[in-house]
Amino acid sequence: MALETTTHDLEEAVIKFAGDSGDGMQLTGTQFTTNSALFGNDLGTFPDFPAEIRAPIGTVAGVSGFQLHFGSKEIFTPGDICDVLVVMNSAALKSNIRNIKKGGIIIANTAGFDAKNLKLANMTSNALEDDSLTNYTVIKIDVTRMTREALTDIQLGMKEKDRCKNMFVLGFLYWMFNREMDNTIKFLNDKFGKKPEVLEANLRVLKAGYSYGDTTETFNTRYKVEKAVMPAGTYRSIMGNQATALGLVAASKKSGLPLFLGSYPITPASDILHDLAKYKSFGVKTFQAEDEIAAITSAIGASFGGSLAVTTTSGPGMALKTEALGLATVLEIPLVIINVQRGGPSTGLPTKTEQADLFQAYYGRNGECPIPIVAAQSPSDCFNAVYEACRISVQHMIPVILLTDGYIANGAEPWRFPKESELEEIKIEFAKPMAEGEKFMPYARDEKLSRPWAIPGTKGLEHRIGGLEKQNITGNISYEPENHEFMVKLREEKVERIANYIPEQKIDSGPSKGKLLVLGWGGTYGALKAAVRELNEEGFAIAHAHLRHMRPFPKNLGEILNNYDKVLIPEINNGQLVKIIRDKYFIDAMAYNKIQGLPFFKSELMDKIRETLK
Amino acid sequence: MAETITATNGEVLTAKDFATDQEIRWCPGCGDYSILKQVHTILPQLGLKQEDIVFISGIGCSSRFPYYTETFGMHSIHGRATAVASGLKAARPELSVWIVTGDGDGLSIGGNHTIHLLRRNFDMNVLLFNNEIYGLTKGQYSPTSPENKVAKSTPFGSIDHPFNPIALALGADATFVARSMDRDPAHLQNMLLRSYKHHGSSFLEIYQNCNIFNDMAFESYTEKSTKKDEALFMVQGQPLVFGANNEKGIKLDGFKPVIVNLEEGASKDDLWIHDEHDMVKANIISRFFDHVDVEGHLPRPFGVFYQTTRPTYEDMMSQQIAQVISAKGEGKLDKLLAGSETWVIE
Lengths: 614, 346
Hints:
- Chain A is built from 21 helices and 22 strands.
- In chain A, strand 18, helix 18 and strand 19 form a beta-alpha-beta unit.
- The longest helix of chain A is centred in the middle third of the chain and has 20 residues, at 196-215.
- By secondary structure, chain B is of the alpha/beta class.
- In chain B, a hairpin with a 2-residue loop joins strand 9 (248-253) and strand 10.
- Chains A and B meet through helix 1, strand 9, helix 9, helix 11 and helix 13 of A and strand 1, strand 2, helix 2, helix 4 and helix 10 of B.
């Protein structure tokens, strides 16, 4: 008999699933995410996994987490701290206790709090038994035992049975948030259709988790988060790296150029390679090179041959590619370089996020070597950003760096995806064959200062290019002093002229003039937007602008900066954009920095903005 | 032997068509001139359209080569010609791609790319100009310089053990491995043609004299007085013989090669018959690498060490794409963008 329960309506909720790497928390999280998306919530997610593939079981190093923020209102981030924390063992509680709201709910698997697990987590006392969790509502469930009991008559080994325990938690959460379970049932059928025993076990435990909520007295409050009001359309869930891969395929299709990716595996960029390797039916060629240098130089070769050529990497790989970036700059050929930033320097924090490669993108090469830079601001925005990077690259005959980061690369959000017909064509033209007697000039230029893309196999266009300084128009080697200065200025002007072909900067939220402009770039978009919006609602006359084009800047940026008394530039680094802005516009822009491998919390941004306004 | 072949488009090309208007900047007397000449001589014989040929180089004296050859070309960065060429060939399998590199470019800074190119077996021709010295940086020892080499950076002699480029290429599972020299135009032309005709990665090591920083490094093999005794020219199906009157031969004693004298009782029937398709023999003969100063050293082999057939990377890449398209049909962007699960908000 079901007990009397009360249902609370919530505008938004943040849930974090945390457990051992082998506990299936990523899967549990994605299932709840899909369920929320299909139900019609707006949402944002962020997985948080350890750098080690299989750290020792039960240790803090092995804790894997998945955070989901969903709501009936617009959601811009995966949430600062959680309302509900699911912990499968002691280590998961230990590493996440800082991330839960006072008064929040902790759902704990008691089997993960035995003496052995406490020891593995270096905990001297059992937090579930002592009074350290008095500020929270703790729901203790022996998930391991309940799972085993639900499966007593199933012919599976204990290990395989225990593997179902994440489904118990998922079922319980579905009950707690008043959800249907159809999507997960379908998912399990698709996944385990060929293993009837495993399928039956998972379904049974999922339902057992749901029934547990329904029939026990442990808990009698349920929650409901209504559908969000979102623009009408067809949606899907998308992660940043997925969106980047899709954007590349789309740019290839809309430019008519075959796509070539030269890449070397590196966290957190590898998923772009994985995805593109699947898209062979689009003619995509992926080349897993022997190192980062071969990855970019093979792409340079493919670009010379007329492909939409791309290389994907993260900071350390970017460092290795710098000489080749200089070559692409002097060759003046298209190339898209994608840096999914992570914490640095050196190997740094491979699975954590950071925005500290902006200087590297701006300045990290020998000689005067300006390269246009585009940045993506959210998981789905990676699609638009990479599309724009491709457009600039092939239309201006220039390498372009796209900066994303680990936070948006692995985060997910609903995406009202475009139709092919809605995407703007990327018009390009290769140089035409030459008639007998005509001489081809490989460094002749158009009004954008871009040179012809003359691909091998075209009659009469035989020419040689290389890394030595060029004479303009002819492309011949030249060591003339005046020529070098001329060419350095010309390559810079070529980059600056891109400003004539990009949209003007817009204000994202807030008034067009006022006390404070919060200027951001990249993956901090959601947090900045959420913070500024909330302060706007509180009556503060502040605005938020977010940069897509980092180099060159939109032409009206200087004007915008002058419309505010103060400019605050929050970044997940030690202050990089702020220095570039100060240098270029001579304004007293203020920095706000966080360098913890973590994204900004809305709350800390709001505090900082309030303090700035004092 | 000014043979001409009509290209597929009906044009008759000559060596002159491959000369550019650029002033050649190699030192007078450099071995590179001869190699350039032999390449320009064989190019018209390939039946290719001029615009379908691409020369890619890295950095070093040899890497100036593309500037002097009227085809498409790229003078890339140090050591990376092989990688640039791999991307180009993957993207455009129909092009004839040639890599010009040197012992520093291809075996030191770019050694990694060289071995990976060979194992992948792109259908390209690697011309490795080996002069056993760094010329462009003015005279440091290279990874092929012999031990004890006194050079700018090794005033007391080099303590580096040198690479054996042929053995290295075989170790990387190259499908065509050959050696020639700048001072034997006929042999070099022949090896260039063989390299081109091989479908797969062709690795051709060319001994090239740097008359400024390492003059006469290969004189034992190139000079009339010693060439016949020190250079062993391998011919498919023929016994390994050398010497002024071809009086010396190589015999295999188990797996150990020994020199025998045909004028002193040895029989031609007992000699090693060269078989470029035999990997075991190729591995043994690739190790004829002792310096001429070593007592009892074997002669240095020239010609094709090894040749085999294996599918090329670019062919397999294209096949895989064709197979997926024939199984699934051409990709539809709208379907891809929608993914597997969508929902509608009214």
